[in-house]
Design goal:
Blueprint: H1 5-27, H2 35-38, H3 40-58, H4 71-98, H5 106-109, H6 111-129
Helix pairs in contact: 1-3, 3-4, 4-6
């Protein structure tokens, strides 16, 4: 299940464009859609990414795979999986808040996003300062 760079860019652009069009229609009150419906392009894109990530991680379980090769790689993929789940949690909490399904404070809605951003900064700092260069 491999996609070329051009296919990934086109897919990302297409889903982002579709999401933004639906968001603008909702914010301009031209479409009385549910907020969960507005976020469908984001969730479809995230599902595709999650499936690709899980397939790559499951490839480590096949026979003949040496676990010493790529121990950093599995840590990176595990971080990507956690990041995707944090993004999903944020989107679900945001939609629930906007749709008024819950009365939680907006600060609580943003906790998964803050955790994602802090984790991203930690990973960036690690890659800049601690990764050995050849």
């Amino acid at each position: 299940m491999r996609m070329s760079l051009a296919q990934r860019v086109l897919l990302t652009w297409l889903f982002t464009l579709l999401f933004l069009i639906m968001l603008v229609l909702k914010l301009d009150e031209k479409a009385p859609w549910n907020w969960f419906l507005i976020f469908i392009p984001v969730w479809i894109f995230d599902t595709i990414l999650l499936v690709m990530l899980i397939v790559k991680m499951a490839g480590r379980c096949k026979s003949g795979f040496d676990p010493r090769n790529g121990s950093q790689n599995i840590k990176k993929k595990a971080w990507y999986l956690v990041a995707m789940l944090l993004k999903l949690a944020f989107c679900l909490a945001l939609c629930a808040k906007l749709q008024r399904f819950t009365t939680m404070k907006l600060a609580y809605v943003f906790i998964p996003l803050w955790a994602l951003l802090i984790g991203g900064m930690v990973e960036l700092g690690y890659n800049i300062f601690y990764v050995q260069r050849d």
